Amino acid sequence: MSANKTIGAVAVIGGGIAGVQSALDLGDMGFKVYLIEKAPAIGGIMAMLDKTFPTNDCSMCILSPKLVDCSRHQNIEILTLAEMKGVEGEAGNFTVKVHQKARFIDIDICTSCGDCEAVCPIKLPSEFEQGLVMRKAAYKYYAQAIPNAYLIDKEGVPGYRGCIDCDACTKACKAGAIDHSQKARDIELNVGAVILALGTHPFDPSIKKEFGYGRFKNVITSLEFERILSASGPFEGEILRPGDMEHPKKIAWVQCVGSRDRNIDQEFCSSMCCMYTAKEAVIAKEHESDIEPTVFFIDVRSFGKDFDRYIERAKTEHGIRYVRSRISEIYEKDCGDLQLRYEDMEGDLHEETYDMVVLSIGLCMTKDRSKILSDLGLEVNDFGFAYSHQKDPVALVRPGIFMAGSFMEPQAIPESVMQASAASAQVASLLKDSKGSLVEPRPEYPERDVSSEEARIGVFLCHCGINIGSKVDIPSVVEYTKGLDNVVYATENLYTCSEDTQKKLVDIIQEEKLNRVIVAACTPRTHEPHFKKSLAEAGLNPHLLEMTNIREHCSWVHSDGALATEKAKELVSMTVAKSRLLEPIPALKIDVDQTAMVIGGGVAGMTAALSLADQGFKTLLVEREARLGGALNSIHYTVEGIEVQELLKDLSSRAEEHENIDLHIRSNVSNITGYVGNYTVNIMKDGKESEHTIGAIIVASGIKEHIPTSHGYGKDERIVTQLRIEDELSETSSLTEGETFVFIQCVESREGLRNYCSRTCCMGALKNALKIKELNPRAEVYIIYRDLMTYGFWERYYKQAREKGVVFMQYDIDRKPDVEIGEKLTVKVWEPMLQEEIEISADHLVLSTGMDPADGNPELAKQLKVPLNQDGYFLEAHVKLKPVDFSTRGVFLAGSCHAPKFIGESIYQAQAAAARAATILSSPTLEAEPNIAVVDVDMCSGCRTCISLCPYNAIESVTEVIEGVEVTHADINEGLCQGCGTCVAACPSGAIHQRGFRDDQILAMIKALGACSLGGGS
Amino acid sequence: MSEEFEPKIVGFLCNWCSYAGADLAGTSRIQYPANIRVIRVMCSGAVDSVYVNRALIEGADAILIGGCHLGDCHYLNGNYKARRKMVLLKNILETLGMEPERIWVKWISASEGQKFADTVKEMVEETKRLGPNPFAKRWNV
Ligand code: FES
User: Who among A56, A557, A1009 is closest to B31 (CB)?
Assistant: First the structure.
């Protein structure tokens, strides 16, 4: 870091999910952020996806609030149609050159009405819709685009010309937003750090001639299929094949197109295709139950958290057919159907006919990305991607420049999000002195006093594309709603959460003088904050909002449209009843103790603590054992070039010496009380307890190897686990010729109660196999596997191992290898090609058993009030977009307590957790829980029932003199109350109310329901 | 009992687990009968007996109180309190002549969408067997 003052601004290049996450983290921490996106809108590939695995969340639903947050964040400036042209200077003080193309439409004036598009005579294939439909030269990138504005394409695309300057749009635009004379501009941004989150390109399968993409109309890419599935896509969610717009019945997915392919120099695995293929097949079947999906695959790489269960459900519940095979050719029949020729595992050739073929394309590095890397003076790895060291995966060789997302390596959303937050943490450490120097305080909106007004309720019903509207007859619900007392306004929207609807909402609240707002849409659990912000902007107390869930609880679960519509009406009427009684809730600020605690001193825990300490936060690091390092202590070597013991020494000595780290080894957290910003923790060491106060907590409790009971383990010394063989190999200097090692993968894993992949064991086997071959190339190694999980760049070691003569044999779960113990160990494996069992005579048998969660997790989960998943790993708030947060504010997680993972992954996840914790710790105050309980002193009889029931010791009995009379009543501490409502339900005098959930409000809902329908049937 | 009888169910679901479980049933598109109307509360411990009584009087044929699994309550132990309260309430209702089976207390976590859907299905079936709520709109409180 330079001695000069750093610049408190950051350039984030790329506005996909990774860039958006970095921008939000850094904006929340108090940095000025420039978010630079080449496309006309942010959102990246995630915006194009229909659903996300393994929860089948609607991609746009979870992404859109983040995009809107970005556009509303006062510290974030979005530059679209903008490309980075160079970075000069050094860490802490860079000049980033940006070239921004002209949009020809003024973003601030454009109302997104679409009049320009309507009159524009020019048609070009839509990039966003993958060319499946045409767009105009005057167009909007996609329906929910942020910034929410049109643009004019003057350049055109290959084969199609752009705007012809006919000027029809200028005349049509009533707002006067069009400016054909706009010029491109070159901008220089002065920033302290740069994050590269440029993404990668989907592979273009037309170069794989044998699949016929580009020649056969009904061979499409998986990204095209995402658009086809999407309710807002080219066919409005109807599954049609592009050739003749017929409904396909038999659909084949071909995996690994453009991945794991030596012939086209794309030898890495793209990591996410196995899972999105399963997802696409499942969703296709959900759209139309008579579709018969078949997946042609090499390995099913379901290496992530809860992935195996998803694949199992795809097979058993949805009846997706999986065929392990290699496709040799696809050709088209006259009717447009496709003939697939493939070879199965037995070596037999087959031909099958399909109505449509989806190519599961991977990601690739493109020439322009490579050029960016070389222009910036960055090294590349053997796949042409940016080189980084696993010790600090998001840092590039040039200090002050970081990267995140699939620009770094092809991968799925949660990894991208974690790396994005990790990059934010790195930036925050680098620029800690200039944090907050370039930002202005958050605007406070003046609040209208509505206390004397009669309720004027506005109801906004959402179609959610066709997610709600296809089942619930929204127009009839609107009509019904208009007839309810106090409802002065009711309307419907295609997407109520979109930016333009939000703007409209603000206007309508003001125009119609609404003082209560109801949004009938999706779950309040994700979208409520979003709508509350709009209320605040409109001058209403945000708690005058009420949501009702007509999607998750209605249209998505009731296929009968009439019943769903009736239910939606009743839900709205109940909500209106509650809404009438809503009252403003004042904003409470809680003080934040700007320090943290990290539980667990393994690689994740140490990294998280160091990151926080480097950002300037005092941090307690608590480790149970006498030495730091956790699982790292039992690792001797890696293939990816991490000197583990050196890394361990480096991390632990820095943790021991850092002035901001208060290290407690041989210690346990014995008690945790308090809440976000204000925890009191007791740490027990040698029977002595010390008390500390902190503001945020990161859990990094680690993992342990599973000890097997099968395959003869424990009966013979030659049968060992992965960790044990590593110990042995690290002490061996030579092996004898012909010495035979057999590795069996997935032992007691990915089935039964442990139905999850431990992600690291295939690489563990490969690592040890390569070590064996290094010790003696004539030693024999067999790896008997189910699916080889060498995802991403790990694939390179699979190739190396094959080149070195390691023998790979695949087995299926119903034909597990057998072991016989004799003078030698005999391993019996079914060989599908030969159609017989073969016997391998082995000197060593290594069982890859995978990982088990740490023993202390249940106890820790109880102390922290955070959940575990069914396998005993900690359960994050959202698998895609909140991978290191818990739903309990102020508590975060990192490392393999989340799920098994590699060292590099633990490192960036730990940095991510540090960044997320920093978003809380960066400010001395935080807004408090609004739904707390309050005592009506006049009603309270002072009986003390509530005091003993309160789980947080938040209630006291106080005696005071009111109007000359001495009264004893309950008193609730606003900072301690968490708003559970227990005291409210228990109070015999009805003297306690919970804000937002008052008794009279709930009873009004019940009564409203009674008036609608209850009892009507009898 | 006529075959047309469609029971009306009111569900009080805690925000952190059961409501999220019902959300998951939605995101997973697990279909279940449309007989339930959900009222979100912060914790099952916040469900006042008065709410349940009111719903029964208004004519609900069955009531679901959904909370986090025992030990998992976001607020430590609200669900234990809910359980205790509902046992008492069931006793009282029974003495008044109402089948206590109409009150269901279920622990459904945020990852149990299927369990939520199954619970609703089961409730509808069982309640069909019981027939309509005998107290419906019979009292004026
Ligand atoms: S929060 Fe779910 S039962 Fe208390």
Answer: A557
